[in-house]
Every structure is written in structure tokens, then in C-alpha cells.
């Protein structure tokens, strides 16, 4: 018996390698990789992503999750399990700092909160721990984008000054050029403070013999104390 022969195709009939594709390359194949891609240049969110309701990581959901319960019939009280989904809307909200509309998925209660506080920027820049937890991953990303605006940086700097905090706490939000400008401004301010003389602070004329006068006053007070010690009975002068 002869061994089976392999079928040899003509070179023109062989399949050619695929040289290009018209399909757009997806940035992520799962929600975890999508979050990693979207937050690669953003500080870590302190509360982390939602593991049970993953779509809330891509919108302003306000910590809401699906609710589960029973639908009870009125006639024979038969219970049927059911599910209540959050009331989510796709909205275009105006950002004053960025001067453009932002397309976000927002929950109805969060939308009312945005109208109450005065806009999307005020909602995202809230300082309370409850607001930070309510933002979620998407709100944290939008908050970081707002903090890159120069007007928002100046607003945060004034806020720190009002609270009595040092303005150096905003290094993470400033670029290298702005940090150099801030350092140069601090150096100039320090130089101005050093150049202020005591006469300028008190409004008096400068006195060249002020140090000598101070030494004479100290010596006079020391002599008076020694004389007082000598007048007291039962005390001796300590050399």
C-alpha cells in the first residue's frame, strides 16, 4: 500500500495573511481593564471601585444599587420575586470650569443634588467625606479633570488660605512650571519680610545705639536686683 499523499495547494490558492483590519481596536475587554485604562494617570480613589454593581463605576450613580423584593398578588397573596433598577439617565451637563458640555450617566437623585448645589462643578468639588464616597470612580475622574483647570486651582488655594492651611499642599495638582512660579513667589515674599526693619514695624526712627542702650538697661536691672538681695535679711550674695 502506498502512503497517503498530502494535498499540496498551488501558491496562488494558499490563504494570504491578513495585512490590515478596519475594526477599531478596543481599549479594554472587561470593566476592570476599562477602569484601569481610564484611571491610569489619576490618583487612586480612596473607596475603590464597586464590585457588586460594576456599571456604577462609569457614571454618577450616588451609591445606589438594584433593589430586590416581592410582588404580592391581591387575591391569593402569591409572592413573585422582582427587581427595581436605579433611575439612570444620559445627560449633557455644562461645566463652567472646562467651558463645555460633559456627557455622563447620572441617577435622578444625583441630578436633583446637582441642581441644588449650583451645577456640576460644585457637586464634583464637594469636600465632605459623604460627597467623596458618593462620587464613585467616574465622579472621581471628573473631579480630577476639574482640578487641572487654573481657575479651580486658584479657588482651592484661596480656600486653603481661609482655613489657615499652607498653600504648599497643592503640589499634586500643579505642573512643574507652576511649582517653580509658586516657589519663586514664596522666595520673593520671604525676602520682603526680611527686608522689613524694626523701625518700619514700630513706626519709630532708627537708633544706631539701640543695642548699647539695651545692654545698659540690662546691667542697671541686674545691679538693682543685687542691691535688693543685699537689703533682705538672711540672704547672701551669690557670686
Give an overview of the whole structure.
This protein has helices at residues 31-38, 108-117, 120-124, 129-147, 150-162, 176-195, 198-202, 210-231; strands spanning 67-72, 79-84, 88-95, 100-107. It is elongated. The longest helix is centred in the last third of the chain and has 22 residues, at 210-231. The strands form two sheets. A two-stranded antiparallel ribbon has the order 1-2. 43% of the residues lie in helices and 12% in strands. A hairpin with a 4-residue loop joins strand 3 and strand 4 (100-107). It is an alpha+beta fold.
The biggest sheet, with number of strands, parallel, antiparallel or mixed sense and barrel status, is: 2 strands, antiparallel
- Given the C-alpha coordinates, what overall shape results? elongated
Classify the oligomer. single chain
Structural class: alpha+beta
For the CA atoms, what is the radius of gyration?
A: 37 Å
Q: Span from first to last CA?
A: 129 Å
State mean pLDDT (0 to 100 scale): 76
How many strands in all?
4
List the helices and strands and how they pair.
Layout: H1 31-38, E1 67-72, E2 79-84, E3 88-95, E4 100-107, H2 108-117, H3 120-124, H4 129-147, H5 150-162, H6 176-195, H7 198-202, H8 210-231
Antiparallel strand pairs: 1-2, 3-4
